[in-house]
Amino acid sequence: MEHPVITLRHHVHEDLAEIRQLLLDVHADIPEYSPDDPFVRRFPWFVDHWGGRPDFTCVIGYDADEPVGFAYGSPLSEGAEWWRDHITPAPEHCQTYAVSELMVRPKWRKTGVSSKLHEALVAERSEDLAVLLVDHSHPKVQSLYESWGYEKVGNRQPFADSPVFATMVRWLRRPAVMS
């Protein structure tokens, strides 16, 4: 597929009721996610958890009227910046935006849509750092994030039934004083 003309729509916490089912439908269209996997079946909980945060942001891409993918996340609260366990010394004053999900439906993969969604999500962020988790068994996805400026800083298994993830960080703006 050529690079389609993608329209981006930005959403916030107040829009969750309107976009929730669309997020679930796109997730259900991802062939790598087995509906038999208990961790995958909890995706609606993750949508509600992140979308329930008052500072939640989401970007959904459309090819005409068809949703092609989305990216969403939220700033992390001070003290909940789990990435700090992987950086020594961690910067003292650093606000973090967590990129929680980035999904592109199969038909639109390898067309630049994922980069467009991601950049639209983080472009206007005021935080210093973006952080995300990538299933370590997907080295091509990890390489893609590295090409966008992310660096792997460690591994993390946030839930007993989740995969082991590569913890990746990207500076959006460096703090004036690094410790």
From TrEMBL:
The keyword Acyltransferase applies. Pfam families: Acetyltransf_7. One of its GO terms (molecular function) is acyltransferase activity. It is an enzyme of class 2 (transferase). Keywords: Acyltransferase, Transferase. Coiled coil: none annotated. InterPro entries: Acyl_CoA_acyltransferase (IPR016181), GNAT_dom (IPR000182). Its EC number is 2.3.-.-. Residues 6-173 form the N-acetyltransferase domain. This is GNAT family N-acetyltransferase. It comes from Streptomyces celluloflavus.
